[in-house]
């Protein structure tokens, strides 16, 4: 308690003379100074975002112009401003006041003109369809105009938000036409005609009426998709979020700068909390494509201090205020701790966080309360069950206090005592990666608090991994955080020769608080029931991670292809071979963050062109030239579909929102119902990398991450996540269910590998050793 008292400005003591109050002026003054500085910075950021892309400097130019006009006897303002006696209007202070009012008036108009000019400019998406390296004249003029309007500004994280356009609403005819084209490879002629009739009946029936409702919503809301997507797809999900919704992200897998668990995770915590501060103070720079096109930054605000709260019928997303989420919750071998990361309103240094973690590791109070070890398994349970347990056993007393601490924490951390081995080289690298990633995916059912925005796990030899909840944001936000932390760890001098954090320990650092739950016999039974059900799910998951290092995107680009499109065609070929000659509805996620509050849209890679290419590859009579021609057509079609999805011309989000309207208005639609129930047997996603431009994987292969992954979407399907780190290799994370007789993750990974080799063989390229990953790197 002594450390805590030092951070308090007001103290009191009780004696025979009564209650004596003591005031420590220095801590009080520092606290008031930091509070005032924080409030002033908040006001400053609000003003800067409000006037963006204009700057405060532009007010000086406007004021100078107005003053110059006044000096020449010209009054640019409305004549009615000049009221009162003539002698009063001639007073210098009155003229200065009028000049200031006029300047603010015209400057405000200028700010709005600049903002809406930028918004109109950002509606232009022709730049996406220009040939690589060849800008059209229209795009060059567009780039020049954007630079003139916003190029001199120094944007904050949220500066561009009001300048981003709304997600456009597609027409019924366009969406239905694209839908029919996308499903043509999946059906025979008879089934396709039946599907076509459903579409025609829909267009003759409620389609246009539903779209009019959706049109009104598109103007009444910032984004016509996002709120419904989060509400019905994520928060309305009643099953377990473990495996079915959450995803995982991996540490870089080369040689670590520090393999000591405690010092490394201390620096990791410090770097994460620094990013939290940068987000709250809007110092984190927004991501801008080609130094020209901004992406929406709204998802970053929920990265820290966010938790999914279970409900009987629907979950809610809780986000703690910045000052309430200055701590983390740590789980260590069944014991729970609340750890404050701030002292005297200042972020602790890594050396002080290391001291806190050492207190936890060396804690001699190792007695566990029954149910405490598997407590987090409740978050892996079906949502109604977890909601009822939370309401009954964790809504009062110390349990409520500790539950609130978890839900308000910046994030959750598990200090594990296992030591997965990882390597970029070696024959058993895929087996090692798989063992590591399996634990990140499900944490044995109880090692993560699956409701937190993200949970970290720290392994004994320094490796770290993340399990993330999906409703609050998408994977690029977690990817950005990992790059931010890796950059700090790589560039900053954080460790001494012994591997400990540098610096001197501050004796006033607050100690970790042990959280001792009050768990009744009935509550314990509920926890164990959730744990047993989690084990059933864990035992059924089949995950395999493969490192493809025969060649990378450098070779693919040399052949003139988009790496993503090339890989998607390899996945189509692999599935066709794996399933015995069948095509399936395939999902690939693309982002819509070119629009305000945009999240994702679906790309459907199984196109007519892709099917023709796959069939040609599996036909011994097909020539290489024919396969090459069909591959080019298939990849071009995929790139076009991907770009259309990014600019609001996708299929699935529009149909999803039409379905929501039809349900809300009680207007039945057999077509929309059939679309919503179509199974995605192949669900794919590319893990974003090098978003910040700070990670040079080609020259620093130790920084390479193998990406992340997720569980399968259907019982007889595959979930495939892949990452393209640098020019020399790919990683594929393939998941399926062991209970399905139709799937096998290792077999499918082998089919992907073979498909990639067969496709590159079309071009008679001799793959040299230097075309693959060189590890250790050549000096």
From TrEMBL:
Assigned keywords, A-Z: Acyltransferase, Fatty acid metabolism, Lipid metabolism, Membrane, Mitochondrion, Transferase, Transmembrane, Transmembrane helix, Transport
InterPro entries referenced in this protein's UniProt entry, alphabetically: Carn_acyl_trans, CAT-like_dom_sf, Cho/carn_acyl_trans, Cho/carn_acyl_trans_2, CPT_N
UniProt enzyme class: transferase
Location in the cell: Membrane; Mitochondrion membrane
Single GO cellular component term: mitochondrial membrane
Membrane topology listed for this record: Multi-pass membrane protein
Domain Carnitine O-palmitoyltransferase N-terminal: 1-22
The keyword Nucleotidyltransferase belongs to this UniProt entry's keyword annotation: no
Superkingdom, taxonomy of origin: Eukaryota
Short name of any one Pfam family annotated for the protein: CPT_N
Catalytic activity reported: (R)-carnitine + hexadecanoyl-CoA = O-hexadecanoyl-(R)-carnitine + CoA
Active-site residues (renumbered): 470 (proton acceptor)
BP GO annotations: carnitine metabolic process; fatty acid beta-oxidation; long-chain fatty acid transport
Enzyme Commission number, as recorded: 2.3.1.21
Record pathway: Lipid metabolism; fatty acid beta-oxidation
Gene3D superfamilies in UniProt: 6.10.250.1760, Chloramphenicol acetyltransferase-like domain (3.30.559.10), Choline/Carnitine o-acyltransferase, domain 2 (3.30.559.70)
Family statement: Belongs to the carnitine/choline acetyltransferase family.
Designated name of the protein: carnitine O-palmitoyltransferase
Gene that encodes the chain: 100636209
């Amino acid at each position: 308690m002594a450390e805590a008292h030092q951070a308090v400005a007001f103290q009191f003591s009780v004696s025979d003379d009564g209650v004596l109050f003591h005031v420590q002026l220095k801590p009080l003054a520092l606290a008031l100074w930091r509070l005032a500085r924080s409030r002033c910075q908040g006001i400053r950021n609000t003003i800067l975002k409000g006037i963006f892309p204009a700057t405060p400097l532009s007010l000086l130019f406007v004021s100078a112009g107005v003053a110059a006009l006044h000096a020449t006897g010209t009054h640019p303002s409305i004549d009615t401003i000049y009221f009162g006696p003539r002698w009063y209007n001639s007073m210098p202070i009155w003229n200065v006041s009028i000049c200031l009012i006029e300047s603010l008036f015209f400057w405000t108009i200028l700010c709005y003109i600049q903002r809406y000019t930028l918004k109109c400019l950002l509606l232009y998406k022709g730049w996406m369809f220009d040939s690589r390296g060849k800008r059209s004249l229209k795009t060059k003029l567009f780039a020049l105009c954007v630079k003139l309007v916003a190029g001199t500004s120094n944007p904050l994280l949220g500066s561009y938000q009001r300048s981003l356009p709304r997600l456009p609403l597609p027409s019924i005819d366009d969406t239905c036409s694209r839908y029919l084209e996308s499903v043509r490879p999946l059906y025979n002629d008879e089934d396709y005609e039946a599907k076509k009739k459903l579409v025609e009946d829909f267009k003759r029936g409620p389609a246009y009426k539903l779209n009019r409702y959706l049109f009104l919503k598109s103007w009444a809301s910032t984004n016509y998709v996002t709120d419904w997507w989060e509400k019905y797809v994520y928060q309305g999900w009643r099953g377990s979020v473990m495996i079915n919704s959450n995803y995982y992200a991996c540490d870089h897998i080369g040689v670590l700068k520090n393999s000591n668990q405690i010092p490394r995770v201390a620096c990791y915590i410090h770097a994460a909390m620094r990013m939290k501060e940068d987000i709250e103070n809007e110092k984190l720079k927004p991501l801008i494509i080609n130094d020209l096109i901004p992406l929406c930054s709204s998802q970053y605000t929920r990265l820290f201090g966010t938790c999914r709260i279970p409900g009987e019928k629907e979950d809610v997303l809780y986000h703690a205020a910045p000052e309430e989420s200055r701590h983390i919750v740590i789980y260590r071998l069944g014991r729970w701790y609340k750890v404050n990361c701030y002292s005297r309103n200042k972020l602790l240094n890594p050396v002080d966080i290391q001291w806190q973690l050492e207190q936890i590791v060396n804690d001699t109070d190792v007695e566990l309360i029954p149910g405490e070890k598997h407590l987090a398994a409740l978050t892996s349970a079906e949502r109604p069950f977890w909601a009822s347990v939370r309401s009954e056993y964790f809504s009062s007393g110390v349990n409520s206090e500790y539950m609130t601490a978890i839900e308000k924490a910046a994030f959750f951390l598990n200090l594990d005592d296992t030591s997965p081995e990882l390597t970029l080289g070696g024959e058993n690298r895929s087996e090692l990666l798989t063992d590591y990633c399996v634990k990140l995916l499900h944490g044995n059912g109880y090692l993560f608090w699956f409701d937190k925005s993200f949970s970290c796990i720290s392994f004994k030899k320094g490796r770290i991994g993340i399990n993330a909840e999906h409703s609050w944001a998408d994977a690029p936000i977690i990817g950005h955080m990992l790059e931010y932390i890796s950059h700090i760890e790589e560039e900053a001098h954080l460790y001494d020769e012994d591997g400990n954090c540098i610096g001197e320990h501050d004796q006033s650092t607050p100690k970790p608080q042990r959280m001792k739950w009050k768990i009744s016999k009935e509550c314990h039974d509920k926890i164990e029931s959730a744990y047993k059900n989690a084990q059933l799910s864990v035992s059924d998951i089949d995950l395999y991670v493969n490192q493809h290092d025969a060649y990378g995107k450098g070779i693919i680009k040399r052949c003139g292809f988009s790496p993503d499109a090339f890989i998607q065609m390899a996945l189509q070929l692999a599935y066709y071979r794996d399933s015995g000659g069948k095509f399936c509805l395939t999902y690939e996620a693309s982002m819509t963050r070119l629009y305000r509050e945009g999240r994702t849209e679906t790309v459907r890679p199984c196109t007519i062109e892709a099917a023709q290419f796959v069939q040609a590859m599996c036909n011994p009579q097909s020539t290489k030239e024919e396969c090459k021609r069909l591959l080019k057509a298939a990849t071009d079609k995929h790139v076009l579909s991907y770009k259309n999805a990014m600019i609001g011309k996708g299929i699935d989000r529009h149909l999803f929102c039409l379905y929501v309207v039809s349900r809300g208005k009680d207007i039945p639609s057999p077509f929309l119902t059939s679309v919503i129930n179509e199974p995605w047997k192949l669900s794919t996603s590319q893990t974003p990398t090098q978003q910040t431009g700070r990670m040079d994987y080609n020259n620093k292969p130790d920084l390479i991450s193998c990406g992340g992954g997720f569980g399968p979407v259907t019982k007889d399907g595959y979930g495939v996540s892949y990452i393209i780190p640098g020019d020399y290799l790919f990683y594929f994370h393939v998941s399926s269910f062991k209970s399905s007789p139709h799937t096998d993750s290792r077999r499918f990974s082998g089919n992907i590998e073979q498909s990639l080799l067969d496709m590159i063989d079309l071009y008679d390229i001799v793959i040299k050793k230097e075309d693959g990953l060189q590890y250790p790197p050549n000096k």
